Automatic annotation (TrEMBL):
Molecular function via GO: GTP binding; GTPase activity
Disordered: annotated span: 176-205
PANTHER family (UniProt xref): LD44762P
Protein name as it appears in the record: Golgi vesicle fusion to target membrane
Keyword GTP-binding (UniProt): yes
Source organism per UniProt: Desmophyllum pertusum
């Protein structure tokens, strides 16, 4: 019997300079789900429940592809949300966030995408911190996005950051409708007493 075990599907991109801890952010977010890699891209699937809806996430980290402009547009296509990460102990990674915002504006195909600024390596590296919380919050306000601080080893904090972003996406009727339409591209069927997904499209939105 065909059954859908989630209501909505969202594509989320995790962007930021190398060494800000993006891969470390992905691993706690993965939970028991394996990471999928393809031509330098780390990709995972994650399910969350929020506001009574079961939500499936595709979370992408374009690892090692930051300088490859030829590939960039394809990976940004169809993303409803962006997590912009920087390392609080590395001022250069923070100073590069405006450039990442420009790239998102250039390549994002969804007009109503949402974004969140993620300050990584907080608390466990507090002694070496060079970008203050006040600076991060002010920057986020200036560019109209959420702000959150995480320790990349704490899965609960990463979940909270994802939920903040998803709440903003859910508040946008256009994004929610597109997510509903996209979810219909997946077949869910029961096998061996559990749910197994047959994916009609795995990559590139």
């Amino acid at each position: 019997m065909m059954a859908m075990n989630y209501h909505l599907l969202f594509k989320i991109l995790l962007v930021g300079d190398r060494e800000v801890g993006k891969a470390a952010i992905l691993h706690p977010a993965a939970g028991d789900s394996p990471l999928t890699s393809s031509i330098g891209v780390n990709f995972l699937k994650r399910k969350l429940e929020l506001d009574g809806k079961r939500i499936k996430l595709q979370i992408w980290n374009i690892a090692g592809q930051e300088s490859s402009q030829a590939l960039t547009p394809s990976y940004y296509h169809g993303a409803q949300g962006f997590m912009l990460a920087y390392d609080v102990t590395d001022k250069t990674s923070y100073d590069k966030i405006p450039e990442w915002l420009r790239i998102i504006e250039d390549y994002a195909s969804e007009e109503d995408f949402q974004k969140i600024l993620v300050a990584n390596k907080c608390r466990c590296h507090e002694r070496n911190r060079v970008v203050t919380k006040k600076e991060g919050e002010a920057f986020a306000r200036e560019y109209g996005m959420r702000y959150t601080e995480i320790n990349d080893l704490q899965s609960s904090e990463i979940d909270d950051a994802l939920k903040l972003l998803i709440q903003d996406i859910l508040s946008n009727a256009g994004s929610t409708q597109k997510a509903q339409e996209k979810s219909e591209d997946y077949d869910i069927h029961e096998e061996d007493g559990g749910h197994k997904m047959k994916e009609k499209e795995l990559l590139l939105g």
